[in-house]
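Posting here for the record, re: iron/sulfur cluster.
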Amino acid sequence: MNAPRISRVTAGSLKRLLDCERRLWLSEHGRGHAAPRSDHDELLGGKSKSLEERMALEGEMVGPVMSGGVTFEQAAAETLRLLRETRASIRRPILLSPDGKLSASPGFIIREGDALVIRDVRLAHRPEKKREHRVRTSFAGWLAHKLTGLEIARLEIVNGLGQTVVIAPEPAEELEALANRALELIGDSPEPTVLMAHSHCQDCDHYAHCWDQAEADRRVEVLPAVTRRRAELLHAMDVRTFDQLATMKEPQLEHRELRDAAKILLVEARAWSSGEPVWMKDPGLPLNRPIVWFDIESDADGERANVPVYLWGIAVDAKGSTLDDTQRPPFEPIMAELTRAGDRDAWERFVKRALEVHEQHPNAVWAHWHNAEPMWIDRYTARYGAPQAFLDTVRTSGALFDLHQAFERSVRMPVRGTSVKLVAPWLGFHWSNPNADAEWSTAMLHRAHRTQDPAQRQAILDEVARYNADDLWAMRIVWRWLAANRPR
Ligand code: SF4
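Prediction output follows.
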């Protein structure tokens, strides 16, 4: 029989608390809601482990103290013995308060004379900038000091570049207050009702639980324009549902922070309350011109990555958007090999193809969603250069058309944001792989390049390309819907 699970406040609990206290509550009380680990999580977990292993090789270490057959309490007792009776530096120590309620397991505790250095490993390039990282490492130092009485000489984090940075400790009273709040939440306190912003929640394991419930309750917080501050102001006016907000008039939203967004708040509320799109104005589509659907896939590490943009995807609708969805234009993925030379080669092939397209369709519109595409064109132009003809035609002649901007300025739908991933499904479009997103795509790309089997590699790259193609078809659906339904 498995031993009963003991709830403890860990450094990870404090991270979740800082992120969202409901998240901490759910991670303790609602484990069934959590999403399974993604490929991207696995990728990050593997990178973090290998960075920690590399660091461990750089000094004399004992540990990890937690290994097969050793219980958590035994590992904690051994950590304490090593800290009190020896001068050993320890990899993955287990720090556990005497009442068993608080625990921490930093990457390393290093001996420095009679004092201790707490060292954690984080993949971020500047982890010291984020409070969650400072709190987690400080919490381990605070607990180590409480357990041993030894001075903490320094707190350090090894970042994703392998550099060791010293971080300022969080005040002890702050740590104590956070630990106490975390203890309340993992205890028997009721589920918090807080709903964070959609952009914050969408990657959370509990997204479906919180947002489906909020929609069912018709909470005003589901509107994209309702920030946490605006939600507080609306609640103070006793406006809790989008149905209530939908009946209001602009002058009733008097507070400056509501007044500034009054129009969009009311349009969104009316869309949600009626379940129908609400128009603000004509989207201004450049109609009756050939359309080049254009979407890139880029590495989340941006310019720090060896190959920042690994896929330049286009499809040319020579007759504009009049074709129906069963007659999609050929998809043209321009994919980079994951080397610096491959990066340059893909950019040059993209520029060459863009010039050919311009030659055939000088009046074409290059439709993209949001600003990543022009931004990366500019960055690659700075990186490798581009022929003047390319800059004059595709980049600076007004050929690029931000469909997201046109959508956002003209209409609101009862959806949780204006991402194409939310808008296109409302119009009936579905990605071939419902679990695919930008992170998934990058994780798959790296998996493809790790595999030794050429057939398997190609199959994975094809999946990445299919995801990019779906992004193009999603844009195409939105364009056609805007064109057909715009106010005239
Ligand atoms: S989905 Fe949002 S509100 Fe819910 S637990 Fe996660 S971060 Fe908090």
